[in-house]
Amino acid sequence: MLIASNRTSAAHVDTEGFYPQNFAKGSKRREEKRDDRFRDLFIFFSELWGLRAFGRVGNGKDRPPSRTKLTNKSSGYKRLSAWYSQVALVCRSRKGLTAQKENFRRLLRTVETLSDLGPEMTAERDFAQTAHTMLSALMHATGAREGALFVFIEKPSMLTSVAAQGFALIPEPSVIPLLPRHVHALSSTQGSVLLAQSSYDTFLSSNGNVAPELFKCVAPLKVAGKLVGAIALGRRDADSLYDEDALQALDLLCHYAALAVQNHALTQTLAQRVSENLRLMASLHGFYDNALEAFAAAIDVKHVNIHGHSLRVGRYAAAIGDAMGMDMNEVAALRSAGYLHDIGKVAVDKRLFGKPTTLDAEEFQEMADHTTVGHQIVTGVQFPWPRIPEIVRWHHERADGTGYPDGLLNEDVPMQVRIIGLADTFDAMTSQRPYREPISLGATLNEIVRITPQKFDPNAVQGLLVQIRRDSVGSNRTPFLEDRSAGNLAPTDIDSLAASLQHKMSNGRLYLT
Questions:
Q1: 113, 337, 352, 396, 471 from 369: Cα distances, Å
Q2: What is the DSSP string of 14-51?
Q3: What is the DSSP letter of 439?
Q4: Chain centre distance of CA 162
Q5: Where are the alpha helices (DSSP H) in 324-456?
Q6: CA distance 397 to 405
């Protein structure tokens, strides 16, 4: 034995050190034996653990003297007690060190999982992929080999899986309907819960397409106390139970998983609300269109020659805006503004619309006042499109300042107003009037190009030519002219007009390409 080899024979130690046969041989000798026993034990543990409390233990140089007689009994016991305490401390330290190492490993595993979760939660990728990555990290941190990540749907209350791993058979998605008591239990519990036969029904319903008995542990995902989902873990490696350390790691990581699930839910809700708002807006625009079409028909009832004028202006203006690349809302605004641009004519004497001769100055002023009267009518109305009052007032303004009522120049007039002004003139020229026959399409376009840019915006005129050319080649899904025809106007004729307009806008300069 190591003890015997270090100091005395085994027989000497066993018979005189550990057994009480020599109890009556005197207290001094017993003290010496006790000293030897504790010293030998201490040397044993010192060599076992590498402890060198006395310097180089083993060479006898720095050891306490062998069989030193203790002249002070209490002092000897103190020295022996100190040696024994050090031995016990070493043993406890060794056990504590092992536990600390294990805890440190778990901590490192948890930190590693957190470092993996961070980039996944902030990455711009599909949530299903993020959910699978998060679930894998949580399972790795807890030693689980089966697990599922659920999101909570409030109406109707249910848990729906977005990721599942390790299960032999599990439906995708797995759905667990929840009663109010289940929702309350999941919302009020603090941290993860080990499931047993008696507690399944407390947290999960058996009415879904997955059996709750597949899960051994459930961890609610909550943000600000509100349930957003759950992590359900199945069997663990080697079918071991989930210990306290695994549950603590799961609780820590679930906080970050809950934030990711909540962010996804908010994004989904926002997208759903935007979609609903767009549908509502489309419905609202449809309602406005129907209402304003009826209004436009009422405006044009003054005389047979202007029937349908406001409807056509709205349609022409919207098509020109579309050809210019405007968005759907701007196109809808142009259509509605076209329907309402002549609303002030409700205050104009009906006889003026049927007069076959030129209006005198007073009659012309009464007719021209329809712009300011219409502006007064629509100013107090809250339209979805803010420029309608400007369009109603200024649609007779011209680029060179010769229009009415305010004599504005082209740069002072918004583009929407310029488009309505062009569409209004185009329809008036191609329609019959009491004082003249309709002008042909070719002649109308030639005249409009001739007086551009003095009167009209060249970009708007190009948009008009684009739509008429589409009609001539049959590429418009909805014909621009509808009840009228491009007649014998060929696409090459329209191209010639467009080239002429471009030549005017470049001041006759030629560009080599």
A1: 75, 18, 13, 11, 36
A2: IIIIISGGGGGG-HHHHHHHHHHHHHHHHHHHHHHHT-
A3: P
A4: 16
A5: 328-340, 361-368, 370-379, 388-394, 415-429, 441-450
A6: 7
Look at residue 153 and give its three-state secondary structure: strand
Closest CA to 312 of 350, 333, 341, 283: 341
Strands (E), 263-348: none
Residue-wise pLDDT tens digits, 142-154 = 889 999 999 999 8
In sequence order, the 6+-apart residues with CB closer than 8 A to the CB of 65 are: none
pLDDT: is 304 or 328 the higher one? 328
Question: Structure pTM?
Answer: 0.49
Measure the CA–CA gap between 87 and 135, rounded to whole angstroms. 46
Q: How far is CA 194 from CA 175, 228, 390, in A?
A: 20, 20, 69
What is the C-alpha to C-alpha distance for residues 49 and 63, in angstroms, rounded to an integer? 17
List the domains of the chain with CATH numbers: 2-97 (no CATH), 125-270 (3.30.450.40), 303-505 (1.10.3210.10)
- Quick: pLDDT tens for 306-349: 788 999 999 999 999 999 999 988 998 899 899 989 988 888 88
Q: In what order do the strands lie in the sheet with 158-165?
A: 175-177, 158-165, 147-153, 226-233, 217-223, 193-194
